[in-house]
Specification:
- Chain A: GO terms for molecular function: FAD binding; oxidoreductase activity.
- Chain A: Keywords: FAD, Flavoprotein, Oxidoreductase.
- The complex is a heterodimer of chains A (265) and B (786).
- Chain A has 265 residues and is α+β, with helices and mostly antiparallel strands.
- Chain A has 2 domains: 45 residues, Uridine Diphospho-n-acetylenolpyruvylglucosamine Reductase, domain 2; 208 residues, Uridine Diphospho-n-acetylenolpyruvylglucosamine Reductase, domain 3 (2-Layer Sandwich), CATH 3.30.465.
- Chain A has 12 helices and 12 strands.
- The longest helix of chain A has 19 residues.
- The N and C termini of chain A lie far apart (47 Å).
- With 786 residues, chain B is of the alpha+beta class.
- Chain B folds into 3 domains: 212 residues, Aldehyde Oxidoreductase, domain 3; 327 residues, Aldehyde oxidase/xanthine dehydrogenase, molybdopterin binding domain (Aldehyde Oxidoreductase, domain 4, 2-Layer Sandwich), CATH 3.30.365.10; 146 residues, Aldehyde oxidase/xanthine dehydrogenase, molybdopterin binding domain (Aldehyde Oxidoreductase, domain 4, 2-Layer Sandwich).
- Chain B has a 7-stranded mixed sheet with strand order 3-5-1-12-9-10-11.
- Chain B is globular and about 90 Å long.
- The chains are: A alpha+beta (265), B alpha+beta (786).
- At the A-B interface, helix 12 of A face helix 4 and helix 19 of B.
Amino acid sequence: MYPTTYHKPETLETAVAMLQGSEEGKIIAGGHTLLPTMKNHLAAPTDVVDIRGIAALHGISDDSGTLVIGATTTHAEVAGSAVVAAACPALACLAAGIGDPAVRHAGTIGGSLANNDPAADYPAAVLALGATIVTNQREIAADEFFDGMFATTLEESEIITAVRFPACEAAGYSKFPNPASRYAMVGVFVAKTNGGVRVAVTGAGEDGVFRHDGLEAALSASFSPEAVDGVPVSPDGLLTDLHGDATYRANLVKVMAKRAVLASA
Amino acid sequence: MSEGIGARVKRKEDKRFITGKGKYTDDIRMENQAYAAFVRSPHAHARVLGIDTSAAEAMEGVVAVLNGQQLTGDGIGNIICGWAITSKDGSPMNMGAWSALATEKVRYVGDAVAVVIADSQSQARLAAEAVEVEYEELPVLVSTRDALADGAAQIHDNAPGNLIYDWEIGDAAATDAALAGSAHVTEMEITNNRLSPNPMEPRSAVAIYDEAEEHYTLYTTSQNPHVARLVLSAFYNVAPEHKLRVIAPDVGGGFGSKIYIYPEEITCLWASMKTGRSVKWTSDRSEAFLTDAHGRDHVSTAKMGFDANGRITGFKVDTIANFGAYMSLFSSAVPTYLYATLLSGQYNISNIHCNVRAVYTNTVPVDAYRGAGRPEACYLIERMMETAAREMGKDPAELRRANFITQFPHETPVIMTYDAGDFGGNLDKAMAAADVAGFAARKAEAAARGKLRGLGYSAYIEACGIAPSQAVGSLGAGVGLWESAEVRVNPVGTVEILTGSHSHGQGHETTFAQIVADRFGIPIDNVQVVHGDTDKVQFGMGTYGSRSGAVGMSAIVKAMDKVEAKVKKIAAHTLEASEDDIVIEGGAVKVAGTDKQMLWHEVGLAAYTAHNLPDGMEPGLKEGAFYDPVNFTFPAGVYIAEVEVDPETGVTKIVQFTAADDFGTIINPMIVEGQVHGGIAQGVGQAMLENVSYDADGQLLTGSYMDYCMPRADDLPSYTLEHNTTVCPNNPLGIKGCGEAGAIGSPPAVINAITDAIGTNDLQMPATPQAVWRAIQAAKSPMAAE
């Protein structure tokens, strides 16, 4: 690891000031992406600003039917939360399946979204549930947030503070883990929301998480596993790597969509 | 409770391991310690045009930046391969030069070109990044299959066409004739996938040069410290043997990858002399993936003929073995004398011929990895048998049984003489334990759940207890493969065993103590096993090839024979009885049939006080022995895997795994079961999960656990283990060895089960979900496979 300076501010304002005052500052929360990258000499931030000391960014609450999860809330906290279990059990289930216990007790929802790893789980839930990403500057709809692999519409020094999930009627997530890394090779989140049925696919797309129109149309007509059968899923735009090519992933998108609907019941 | 042979006693060494008190090479800290970081090639094949070290040398904490020109200039020798193989035309193998630090060319990504020595590890690594190497990139060759093709990149000047040797065994003409006259011939093209060993502890070295004494000490992660000292001294000219002490302290797994002497250890020793500092290097996991010797990597075509009754008539194999960029220490022996000599399997086959071409590629060197050659042979034979049974409409178990060797000793056409076995008995035990009779019902039940259930067999045999020195010498080995031991009985009756075997997870401190407890009737806590230090142990050939039991313990038994003879003489003299009447039992040395006895420790004391010894007897009670085996040993067994495949995704679960092994005498069943469990885990890893992958430019794609799939606990079932024992007639304890069986026997059982489930034989390892799904699609519609 290259030398770096560590900061742990207690307010958002201080954090922003530290980022702006640094040559090349990075926000750190759970650190499960940033630290390995730094250890491998692939990132060399001059400063790391740990936002876990900012109390306002942490915690889970129900705001009149909207589930609000603070940015530094860990995956284990989401997985074990009674509030999440009551509002959206599929989300608790998704969080319980991220990485391993060590990852789940350090990794955070805000970190996962800001990083937008194409194989991360949370982007699928956020996009399918039509969540809103709240930052220190504004509110961003999920449909406007993800901007390709490892890219989001967040500005420099913009910090995610919370994620707001609207109530949903039914939701389910099914993941096909990469045999080696156990990241999602294909993860499909299906949700019946006020805005209709939404289906988000992670792990599979060349540009990161995406919604699948065909699956959404079929499941809008009939929210059942059988409805998936007739939907064509094209390999175009899907990833090919060591573990699965686009054709195999296209098959998995269908299978996981079906299983996600089953899981939503 | 007995602690002797056959007792399931807990491991003595585990207290320090599970409480974090083991002492590994990286735990060694010297006062004047500096750290080495290697500058490694980012290119798979390139000419080194120049190395600019000026920026690195100016950096904080940097002690020295050293390169290959300096290393060879100081007379450090090239890295050798210790087993000379002769091609079928009589020519010697074509071994290309391998310098610990590359001088003119680099030949794989990770090849070291320079080393930085600095005060801290971090400083060394930062400075290594600042060393500027100018390369001229050359065409790259990665694929085993393409290595011999016209126009392939040429890797070593003295190995034209990348061919290291073209070797054969068996009778080609007779085998061709037998195949031509066969009622049925099964043909397959079979790949044995390339694996990365991944011991839990990465490689490490601490080199200490004492200028006043002109003496070197090397702490290192080695399976065979004496061999390391011999090679470092005799071939690499690091130091004369009596001026070099090699210590392999606690070592966290090896699986073969720590047999070899790598560039890093050589460089650290030399750099310690150059800088006057102790030099430490510890590989991180990325470096381990880049530089630890890989295993396997064969491409073979095979033909097996059968007569109308299903008897094997002939077996013909053509193999290309990928050796990577350089010939590692035992690489040449693996696809020849550890592979082709096992191609008779458990079967009575009159005609066998195997041709092996070993090739260079721009990849990490390939050498022995748990099983070494024998897994490749077993996989080939056992997939052929299963496929042949399916093609001929025969039951795969009964086809095997009909061809089993039943008379021993049995001489195969590929120079092995099997000494003992009960192959039919192994099969019976495995089939009963696996409830093969109930399989059809289980398959139907799985089908009702939408799952494809399959069952596959593997009848493996291996040659272990490596190896009779004269025999291996005649086949080209550069060393003898005996073992030595010393048994020291202290004046208080406690015992120290000094052994040339090396434990890096095998539990020798327990097992070796058990055979002493068994012989002398003392508790295992009164026995200390000393190993891994060339200053303490007289000599030794180390641990690999499942040899520590069959060879290492045999040496201990020979030394104990001498101790026992002296003990009896002392007791007979003291108790005024005949030596022939003296027996050792229950911690006492007795005159049989009387109440006259000396306690064990009283004999020890008598030997050292020497107040009343027989005339002419030397004081003391310490004996040494060398043991050279007369033959290999032949562990054998039958493994049965049962799997369920999800046809929608290709995900395969091993739902049942049964192993019936014949290891000869078993000293500690718990430790043996642990060896089998670990071996099967690695075998399942090869069959379903693990695969080293390079891209066409020679970049390692599987350079971390994000992409290299190591088996995890939830990938594996609970195993059912059975033992069927025929003792080995050729060593004193009747031991055959158990270290590699699991890794050898399991891959074909798993693949045979998967192919049974999905109804096609066209499947290569690793059977990842994608590979299995594709095979299912291809079988459904042959066009879809294209």
